[in-house]
Specification:
The chain has 109 residues and is of the alpha+beta class. It has four helices and three strands, in the order ααβββαα. The chain has a three-stranded antiparallel β-sheet, with no helix packed on it. Bound molecules: zinc ion.
Length: 109
């Protein structure tokens, strides 16, 4: 996916749901097919939304394992929005500005 969204509306069109976010992460992390994080086998089966199973060692792993999204409780769409917001601002972003733009209750949520 080489299209860069020019605004929030285009961003939301590109990523209308969590499935689209997971698919995008799969494309970035596995451009030539996924590889097992345990045994390096490329004999991988997709078993769910962003979930894969190694056919050799039977290890299940997620496309977000080992990324900054690994332990998040927030939707990927919110993270993608936050990342887009930060990189699209010419003069930087304050934590308070980001909190307000995304409708977050506090910095820690
Ligand atoms: Zn494996």
């Amino acid at each position: 996916m080489s299209i860069y969204p020019k605004n929030v509306a285009e961003l939301m069109d590109l990523f209308p749901n969590e499935e689209a976010c997971l698919e995008y992460l799969s494309i970035i992390r596995c451009p030539n097919g996924c590889q097992c994080v345990r045994c390096d086998s490329q004999n991988i089966l997709k078993i769910g939304r962003g979930l894969y199973r190694c056919q050799v060692c039977k290890y299940d792993f997620s496309v977000i394992a080992g990324t900054l999204f690994q332990d998040t409780h927030k939707p990927l769409r919110l993270w993608f929005h936050a990342i887009w917001y930060v990189v699209s601002q010419k003069n930087g972003v304050s934590a308070l500005g980001l909190q307000k733009a995304l409708g977050l209750g506090s910095y820690s949520n």
